[in-house]
Design a protein that fits this description.
The complex is a heterodimer of chains A (575) and B (339). Chain A has 575 residues and is an alpha+beta fold. Chain A is built from 25 helices and 22 strands. Chain A folds into three domains: 54 residues, no CATH class; 228 residues, D-Maltodextrin-Binding Protein, domain 2, CATH 3.40.190; 220 residues, Dipeptide-binding Protein, domain 3. In chain A, the strands form five sheets. In chain A, strands 1, 8, 9, 10, 11, 12, 13, 14, 15, 16, 17 and 18 form a twelve-stranded mixed sheet that branches. In chain A, strands 4-5-7-6 form a four-stranded antiparallel sheet, covered by helices on one side. A two-stranded antiparallel sheet of chain A has the order 2-3. In chain A, helix 1 runs antiparallel to helix 2 and helix 17 packs antiparallel against helix 19. Chain B is mostly helical and 339 residues long. Chain B is 75% helix and 0% strand. Chain B contains 14 helices and no strands. In chain B, helix 8 packs across helix 9. The N and C termini of chain B lie close together (9 Å). Classes of the chains: A alpha+beta (575), B mainly alpha (339).
Chain lengths: 575, 339
């Protein structure tokens, strides 16, 4: 790949990012002869004519005028950790995962959550009659970054076994659903499932299940056996800015306090991207991110708070990328006497559901950047729209009636929240929680005490099922109804366990739902589950945020994405 | 020899102090409620005992606390500060990146504080109670009383957004390659690499945060120097110097200033250390990759290894600057002897 690096150097020289002296030194380092370097220097346009000199204020602003480079301002320092899929489980950096690495299947447009397409797979899985074996043909002619190795079934099996054995955040994806992945031939794999699973394609689209170059990963400390949890060191190699994926861009620089750079991969199997490079620049403060876009130094600001979004729309100089998220902010009410106390009474939980001013939260606090799903399944996932009419709406009279019906008399609840924290959609909890307190106290006889707690401590207590009444957020694992319905509905799983919730009918419907291949029957099962969760009210969803990002008008084809966060595939820029 | 022995003894004491600091920080970290793994682990994996056990083993959190401490100190002696829980990277590597950035910013801030504060203090003392004094006092009062976050945001708005004279946040222009890492101070590394473009870019980027961060120290220097210079100017030896017929410039610069500098230097040394530790707001506003903002983000995540690393660094900085101040006394005033 020496040619590619020489080409990079020439490009940097032309853009004024590299002095002639440093260009010569680096070219020598790549083994180029002196006459070759002289020829390259003569060919390269002089920095002064190609672009304003770096360092001048106008030089800093050149990128918005450069149609081949996209610059995104994001808080890398606090939200990015790595691009190694065996460890990756972050949100913001998913945008980079999506262009550097590839999974077998992908969801190009998250507003159409059933329209998955094969990416590294040749077609949809062929599932055996008993639903326990899925055979997948892999795409041929796919090569890995830098090494040029062709992708085969061995790479898929290595990547997934490595994810499983590294035992980090995303490992459940390779542990929970199948017993084995077998090689049928060089370009075919067979997955032996633990149970029939109609969500297999959405699961296989999760970034931790991305395919990496097994030979290169092994050479650089990667392991796929049980010793991986202790001894795998390939993440360090990725964090040096190396790349072993198959995506349209390859990682070339990784400095989350400075910049992360990905460059176009010349041998990409699919359509060549319009951009030559994407630069993520670390800018911690959201207002500064926006200012960078306004001054022309960046093209997209990752974080845009609701107030700023209103101002940007009014000013009209920039575009606001808008789309639904699959996240939500919810109230968790403990269903057992200890520690629930009065909230263990279902009617009280329902009364709380009717007392909250949902529209006020969305209109006034989120400035319209949110919707209210009926329950824990965000829209537009399966069955969420069918249960919309059954969800809680503000009805104080009904709340009072339910409250009085409990016969509990005067009730005081303690609402615990993470002090200084932010809810989904960037809403400060210190803003949201007093609003909830005021709403609930409109029910005669109900008082709510606020209990701010250190965020990590609150999470620990919540996970240990010690909180009576708290507020929490949830973001997607993969875009399918089951990944919400199960943790919130099934006895003794993640969220249900934290509020002591158990309903055998929900458990049975979940077992049926994940195995049901008929779409209409499957939808009915999840509609039933959601109706039960609304009736039992262990969780009350306050809102599902709408994502907003500011972008310059030069950016074409970018969209928010509920998993990738920004869909950068297919993005171009006008000069 | 006396001076060297003194320095060695002080550095020997520093090891003891650092050990005490490490015990104190380690115990305090254990006393904080909350599990650092909860801040790191995702909702879906939180209840998976195998994943939790693997992560606990990775950071040695499955050992009893005293064993954890012994392991920590043993690694410390080998220069290994452990691995950050939140970022899964060696703390020593992280500090090697963040500390030079903060040192660079602080050095430029001190350069501003001295370059502006000293002349202001001198002018104010010479023209006591006349308009240059009033002006100098007003400027230094502004410096000490305007909050850094406000000044930082205002400076960004005026000089970057409105006027476009200076670049926005960050250490170098977008897409500019950093000079090869030698000292970690981009300005020095750029000089070593003879990379004029990177050096100019760094200067333009550091100007605003340095002035903002240095404004408080500037005010302190000017006020301290003014008052101690006023005291010195009324001393007998100054009257003698004037009686000898020395020109006023030599009286002030040669005689009075040297004595007046002693309290200023004390404050300066401690201010430098506190700037190193306290540049958080400036670093956040200007996206400057320094140790202050590093400490804050790690603290929120209960990232013990990272916090211990930062605490040790800051304790070490205080020790070094106190030592430098003590040595500077001897140079400024030969009557003060150390050893």
């Amino acid at each position: 790949m020496a040619e590619a690096r020489v080409a990079d150097l020439v490009q940097q020289l032309s853009a004024g990012l590299l002095s002639r002296r440093r260009f010569i030194r680096r070219a020598l380092g790549l083994g180029l002869s002196a006459p070759a370097i002289a020829a390259l220097l003569a060919q390269a346009p002089s920095p002064a004519s190609a672009a304003p000199r770096a360092g001048a204020a106008s030089g800093a602003r050149r990128f918005q005028a450069d149609a081949t480079t996209l610059v995104i301002a994001d808080n890398l320092k606090d939200t990015w950790i790595w691009l190694d899929p065996a460890h990756f489980y972050e949100i913001n950096s998913a945008a980079a995962m999506n262009v550097v690495l590839e999974t077998l299947y992908a969801l190009p447009d998250s507003t159409k959550p059933t329209e998955f397409v094969p990416l590294l797979a040749e077609g949809m899985p062929e599932v055996s009659a008993d639903g326990l074996q899925a055979t997948i043909k892999l795409r041929s002619g796919v090569t890995f970054h830098n090494s040029g190795n062709p992708m085969t079934a061995d790479d898929v099996i290595f990547s997934w076994n490595r994810l499983k054995n590294v035992l980090d955040q995303g490992s459940f994806l390779a542990i929970d659903y199948w017993d084995a992945v077998e090689k049928v031939d060089d370009l075919t794999i067979k997955i032996v499932l633990k149970a029939p699973n109609v969500a297999l394609v959405p699961i296989l689209s999760s970034y931790p299940l991305s395919i990496t170059d097994s030979a290169v990963t092994r050479e650089n400390g990667g392991l796929d056996d049980e010793s991986a949890a202790e001894n795998d060191t390939a993440a360090d190699w990725w964090n040096e800015g190396n790349s072993a994926g198959t995506g349209p861009f390859r990682l070339t620089a990784w400095d989350i306090e400075g910049e992360v750079v990905v460059e176009r991969f010349a041998e990409y199997w699919g359509d060549a991207p319009a951009l030559e490079r994407i630069i993520w620049r670390n800018v911690t403060d959201p207002n500064t991110q926006l200012q960078l876009v306004e001054t022309g130094e960046a093209d997209i600001a990752y974080s845009l708070d609701p107030d700023a979004a209103v101002a940007v729309k009014e000013a009209g100089d920039l575009q606001v990328l808008t789309g639904p998220t699959l996240a939500h902010e919810y109230l968790a009410l403990h269903t057992q006497e200890d520690p629930g106390g009065p909230v263990a009474t279902k009617e009280l939980r329902q009364a709380i559901g009717y007392a909250i001013d949902y529209q006020g939260i969305i209109d006034d606090l989120l400035k319209g950047a949110g919707i209210k799903p009926a329950t824990i399944v965000p829209e537009p996932l399966l069955g969420s729209e069918a249960v919309r009419e059954f969800g809680y709406t503000t009805d104080l009279a009904r709340a009072q009636e339910l409250f009085d019906g409990t016969g509990l008399g005067e009730v005081e609840l303690t609402l615990t929240y993470g002090a200084g924290g932010q809810g989904e959609g960037g809403l400060a909890l210190e803003t949201l929680v007093p609003k909830l307190q005021a709403d609930l106290q409109q029910v005669n006889g109900l008082t709510v005490a606020l209990n701010p707690m250190d965020a990590a401590k609150r999470l620990e207590d919540f996970r240990n099922g010690k909180l009576q009444f708290t507020i929490s957020g949830w973001s997607p694992d993969y875009p399918d109804v089951h990944t919400y319905a199960e943790p919130f509905g099934r006895t003794n799983t993640a969220a249900a366990k934290r509020v002591g919730y158990s309903n055998p009918e929900v458990d049975a419907a979940l077992d049926a739902g994940i195995a049901e291949t008929d779409p209409a029957k499957r939808e009915q099962l999840y509609v039933d589950i959601q109706k039960r969760l609304i009736e039992d009210a262990p969780f009350l969803v306050l809102y599902q945020p709408i994502d907003q990002k500011a972008a310059s008008k030069a950016v074409q084809g970018a969209a928010t994405h509920s998993v990738a966060m920004i869909q950068l595939r297919g993005v171009s820029k006008t000069a | 020899m006396g001076l060297w022995r003194y320095i060695l003894r002080r550095l020997g004491l520093a090891v003891v102090v650092l050990l005490i600091v490490s015990v104190a920080t380690f115990s305090l970290a254990q006393a904080i409620p909350g599990d650092p793994l909860d801040a790191r682990i995702s909702e879906r994996q939180a209840d998976n005992p195998r994943v939790r056990a693997a992560l606990e083993r990775r950071w040695g959190l499955d050992e009893p606390v005293p064993v954890q401490y012994v392991v920590y100190v043993r690694n410390l002696l080998r220069g290994d500060l452990g691995e950050s829980i939140d970022k899964s990277r060696p703390v020593a590597d992280e500090l090697r990146k963040f500390v030079p950035a903060t040192v660079e910013l602080t050095l430029f801030a001190m350069l501003f504080a001295l370059g502006v504060g000293v002349p202001l203090g001198i002018v104010a003392a010479i023209f006591q109670n006349r308009w240059p004094d009033h002006l100098a006092r007003f400027v230094s009062l502004i410096g000490t009383s305007v909050p850094v976050f406000w000044l930082g945001l205002l400076a960004l708005y005026v000089f970057w957004v409105r006027l476009g004279w200076l670049p926005g946040p960050g250490r170098l222009d977008v897409g500019m390659t950093q000079p090869p890492l030698v000292t970690g101070l981009v300005s020095l590394d750029a000089i070593l690499d003879r990379d004029g473009a990177a050096f100019r870019s760094l200067l333009r980027h550091v100007a605003m945060p340095a002035v903002v961060l240095g404004s408080f120290a500037m005010g302190i220097v000017a006020r301290m120097l003014r008052s101690s210079l006023l005291v010195a100017l009324s001393d007998d030896y100054v009257r003698t110097a004037r009686a000898k017929g020395l020109v006023e410039r030599r009286v002030v610069m040669g005689h009075a200033l040297r004595n007046a500098l002693i309290p200023t230097v004390t404050v300066l040394g401690l201010t430098f250390a506190s700037l190193l530790a306290g540049a958080v707001l400036t670093e956040t506003i200007f996206s400057w990759p320094g140790v202050g903002s590093y400490a804050v983000t790690r603290a929120v995540k209960l990232d013990y290894p990272a916090l211990l690393g930062v605490t040790l660094f800051i304790a070490f900085a205080y020790i070094v600057f106190n030592l430098v101040v003590d040595i500077a006394y001897g140079i400024l005033d030969p009557r003060i002897r150390i050893g």
